[in-house]
Amino acid sequence: QVQLVESGGGLVQAGGSLRLSCAASGSIFSINGMGWYRQVPGNERELVATITSGGSTTYADSVKGRFTISRDNAKNTVYLQMNSLKPEDTAVYYCNADVRRSGWSLYTNYWGQGTQVTVSS
């Protein structure tokens, strides 16, 4: 089995910073794309940022210039550095990854359990 475990969420004042981490563990052969999504109660989950295994990144317009996604392939970990946080960034942040398990030929999409980020004004 494969697990994605997020950490680093919390409460921060507007203008502050947080760094989220997501570590994948289990019988992993390789990981393709990884990303961060967020969801506010009553709304759909939305994409925040993605990163390929080669390091190419994409960002939602709302976070460009403030958030940076990165990954450590040796540690099967993806990070999200969030700067200049705004109250509208408040949400549960979810990690996502396309994982090829050992002994499998296909990639399977996995989600973490989510971590709460709250930005106070």
Give a verbal description of the structure.
By secondary structure, the chain is mainly β. The protein is elongated. Strands 2, 4, 5, 6, 9, 10 and 11 form a seven-stranded mixed sheet that branches. It has a four-stranded antiparallel sheet with strand order 1-3-8-7, with no helix packed on it. The chain has no helices and eleven strands.
Could you write a compact summary of the structure shown?
The protein is mainly beta.
What gross morphology would you assign? elongated
Helix content: under 10%
Major beta sheet, specifics?
7 strands, mixed
Gyration radius, rounded: 14 Å
Indicate the proportion of strand residues: over 45%
How widely separated are the two ends?
A: 40 Å
* Structural category: mainly beta
Q: Count of DSSP E strands?
A: 11
Name the helix and strand elements from N-terminus to C-terminus, one letter apiece.
EEEEEEEEEEE
Q: How confident is the prediction overall: mean pLDDT?
A: 97
Uncertain ranges: none
Number of helices: 0
Topology:
Layout: E1 2-7, E2 10-13, E3 18-26, E4 28-39, E5 46-51, E6 57-59, E7 67-72, E8 77-82, E9 91-101, E10 107-111, E11 115-120
Looking at this protein, list some descriptive labels.
7-stranded mixed beta sheet; mainly beta; 121 residues; 61% strand
